[in-house]
Amino acid sequence: MPRILPDVLKNLFRKPATTKYPRERRELPENFRGKPIVDKEKCISCGLCAKGCPDGAITLDEKTKKPRIWLGLCISCAWCAETCPRKAITMTKEFELATYDKNKAISK
Amino acid sequence: MIETLVYIFAYFVFPGILFASAVGLLFMGIDRKITGHMQNRIGPPIWQEFLDVGKLFCKEDVTPAAANSFVFNCAPLLCYGALIAVMLLLPINSAQPVLTSVADLIVIIYLLNIPAVCMILAGYASGCPFGTTGSSRYVVQLFGYELAFIIAAMAVAAKAGWSLSLSSIVAYQAQNGWMAFQVALIPAAIAILIAIQGKLLRVPFDIPEAESEIVHGPQTEYSGPKLAILRIAYDIELFVVAAVIVILFFGGPVPHTIGGVYIPGIVSFLIKCFGIVVLSTLIRNIAARLRIDQALKFFWTFPTLLAAISLILVVVI
Amino acid sequence: MKAEDVVKLVKKQITDVKIPNERRVFATVDKKNYKETLLTLKSNDITHLSTITGVDTGEQIVVIYHLDCGDGVMLSLKVPLPKNDPRLQTVTDVFPGAILYERDLMDMLGVKVEGHPDPRRIFLPEDWPAGKYPLRKEEAPKKEEAKK
Amino acid sequence: MTFIVPIGPQHPALEEPEHFRIEVKGEEVVDVDFRLGYVHRGIEKELCNRTYAHGLFLSQRVCGICDDAHSSAFTRAVEAVAGIECPSRARYVRTIGIELERIHSHLLWAGIAAHEIGFTTLFMLFWRDRELALDLRELLFGQRIMSGEMVLGGVRRDITPDKVPKILRNLDALEKSTKHYINVCTSDRTVIARCANVGVLTRQAARELCAVGPTARASGIDEDVRRDDPYAAYDEIPFKVITERDGDVFAKVVVRLREILESIHIIRHALDAMPKGALATRFPKKVAPNEAVGRVEAPRGELFYYVLSNGSDKPERVRIRTPSYANFPTIKPMLVGSTIAEVPIVLASIDPCFSCTDRITVVDARTGKSRIVTKEELRRLQK
Q: Which domain, by its residues, includes D117?
């Protein structure tokens, strides 16, 4: 008698482990690293984040000198969030970043 | 004139194309849903098979250059036609099948083999190495399970007074109880249930279509409507083979009255078929796929022996 | 097999031995007798060749054989080769596992390994230009293309 | 007449692109020749072009599954080059990260192996329980796979005491289900039929071809970098190295599943023996010219890094030799003589990680003649 049989029959009455993803969402732990966002007021445009970013995804805006993160290159390693002296950059819980428009893939 | 109209209605609607396809696809959908829950996941909705087949019909129809196009194109149709023919010859809602006194057990067994032969031809004709490997495996497996299947069917025919016609078998079972409960025929019932696991290419024996080794075996090169027809044919085969087993072993379309509620023949027939499909799904979910040589060795020893024992028991006693 | 007695084994052939910590030994051996060194090591049942590294130091190509000599001691044998014509005998007869690392050397650094059983190109595409070797010094990496 | 069954580069059994040409006589495999290089990204050249801190993020992405292994090997090599010693609390957090990754990597492999032999239920159950380990990594390090936990000289995020109960709860559930799976795999007749004495790698062949990791340990070679050459906190944590004798696919399944139990044991021990202390030390920008070897026991075997520094803030040469690269020659002795049905399960049994290998790839060909089968020849052979 295969030992997996009781397992399979019990599964029939157990709650399925999978969820209907787009409709039901799983809550994420608090230090989840998703899309980085920049808080313009706190930022003193020191440029540390742009130097520290491993992929060079952060460039300083010409006029406002505030960081602009291109999500195409960003690997959400939260290195900028750590090295920022004013903690201006924080990691959100957002991970669905697919867009059709390249210009939208920038975290202002 | 009325006779041909009845026949046309029977062919296209009731036990024919519409009914068989709908029930087959529904059974397969429920089968996938149960498999999902057995693997602790939600699984697709029950009507998923209809959606899949519908999508496939809208897809482009491709015939590979290297394929032998005539055989490649007409294999699915032949396979589908044979199964619908079997549906007409089975006593579904009453002891009399649609085409009375034309066919008996031998024709049924022969017609049930045509889908397998078509698949083998399709595999060789598709000109892709996976197809050829899949077909050669299918031939080996065909000899494996067919032996047990035929011996078990003969045992039932012998028990029902050496008559090969299905209606007489159903009639025999109506008088003195289901065949499966006869002591002599219990080994044959077990043997045939294992044999259909091989006939329907279900997991312990889905070697011709081993998706991790040879992609989809004979059906690798199929796409679009041809693949849709093959899918419907496979689902109907699932229903038809279960139907044959119900007729041979579990009393066929016999109306019951349980607790004052009158259950018509066709409903009890469908329930019993569904029972067999669920049993096959259970076996599918608790075993890994065997190699072709192991499968052949298994088929020729265990189920064939059981079927032979019950045949001897029936003939001797 | 401690680091010191690994060094004692092949004392004669190796020069400028460095032992940074008790489980690492770096040594250089000359092109002529690197094969016997490997043979003597193999005879003292050091069979695990971790890998073969090729380093292009500008004026010469150094081929390093990294051998795991049991309980964690790692011997790295360096064989310097002239840049213009780097040539080596194969060690697949001593360490069959090296069949792949040598093909990697041939592809990436252009070191000719004679007697290799199957000197096919290993991972560069067939139509890769013959003379170019990616890990050589003169192959400068492509400039960072302009970002967004 | 032998004909060639091409498997890959796109094939349901292979989760990454590689191309195998299996020369077959009927069902029996006569010869194996594979061609890789489809995911080659030239990481070694790129590492010499980045500073050490940025190189760490790149080295993590050599392999999609074992990123902690690569970052611990890179940090071990670079810290040895720079002569930096990482604080003890960071060593414990690193050990926990590495062992959690070993658990989810082994469960991932077990699921794929079950899929290869057609046991879809086991495949689904393995991957359901893998979520327990991935949830832990998400809780502790922020992301399921690319944890980015290690930094040169220490660790970025601490394991605070309030997370410990959740870790222990998940570990208990994992232990219970892994024990159940070991019973299932060792007792199920169809699994035994498909895995026992299939793709056998004899101990002598494994030693000669320098196989590493579970592939070698399944053939009886008692080698484990965590015990022989301890790094992180492995010298302070007692654990057993698991070996089997007969070297077939079944032994590899058992070795990997029992290693999961060992990993759970290591994490529990590391959790309650974690010392207080700093998380990271400063890492100098420039590193004096030096060379060092960093070895780590990745889930698939011994991962080897060699770093040569030249005084600037960029390494002079980084050599990465991944475990799958070492295990690849062993495929030939395992496969020749078996049947096509066994090819996927034997290929999967060394748990090949082609993105790892492809940064340097490998082709093992039949000895003597080497010929490239052209497209037409393949087509003609198939007729």
A: 43-333
Domains of chain B, by residue range, sit at 2-316
- All residues of chain A having their beta carbon less than 8 Å from the beta carbon of residue D61 are 75
Q: What is the DSSP letter of C3?
A: H
Flag whether residue D207 sits within 8 Å of chain C, measured between CB atoms: yes
Q: Which amino acid is at D208?
A: E
Q: In this model, does residue C125 exceed pLDDT 50?
A: yes
Q: Encode pLDDT of A85-105 as tens digits.
A: 988 999 988 888 888 888 888
Q: Evaluate whether B246 touches B269 at the Cβ level (below 8 Å).
A: yes
Predicted ipTM?
A: 0.89
Closest Cα in chain A, distance from residue D319 (Å): 20
Shortest CA distance to D74 belongs to which of D88, D54, D97, D96?
D54
- Total residue count of chain A as it appears in this document: 108
How many domains does chain D contain in total? Answer: 1
Instruction: Give domain status of residue D200, yes or no.
Output: yes
State the chains in contact with B (3 or more Cβ–Cβ pairs under 8 Å).
A, D
Is it the case that residue B171 has pLDDT exceeding 90? no
* Separation between Cα atoms, residue D84 and residue D68, nearest integer Å: 19
**Which residues in C lie closer than 8 A to residue D36 (C-beta atoms)?**
123
Cβ neighbour number for residue B59 with a 10 Å cutoff: 13
D130 in a structural domain: yes
Among D53, D128, D184, beta carbon nearest to A17: D128
Report the gap between the CA of C142 and the closest CA in chain A (Å): 16
Q: Do chains B and C touch (3 or more CB pairs under 8 A)?
A: no
Contacts (Cβ under 8 Å, ≥6 apart) of D306: C51, C53, C64, C66, C76, D77, D291, D292, D293, D294, D317, D318, D319
Give the 3-state secondary structure of C80-122: EEECCCCEEECCCCCCHHHHHHHHHHHHHHCCEEECCCCCCCC
Distance in angstroms (rounded) separating the CA atoms of residues D124 and C131 = 50
Q: Is B283 helix (H, G, I), strand (E, B) or coil?
A: helix
Say how many C-beta atoms besides its own lie within 10 A of residue A41's C-beta: 8
pLDDT recorded at residue C142 = 61
For residue D375, the model assigns a pLDDT of 33
Tell me whether C147 touches chain A (CB under 8 Å).
yes
Q: Which residues of A touch C148 (CB under 8 A)?
A: 59, 70, 72, 102, 106
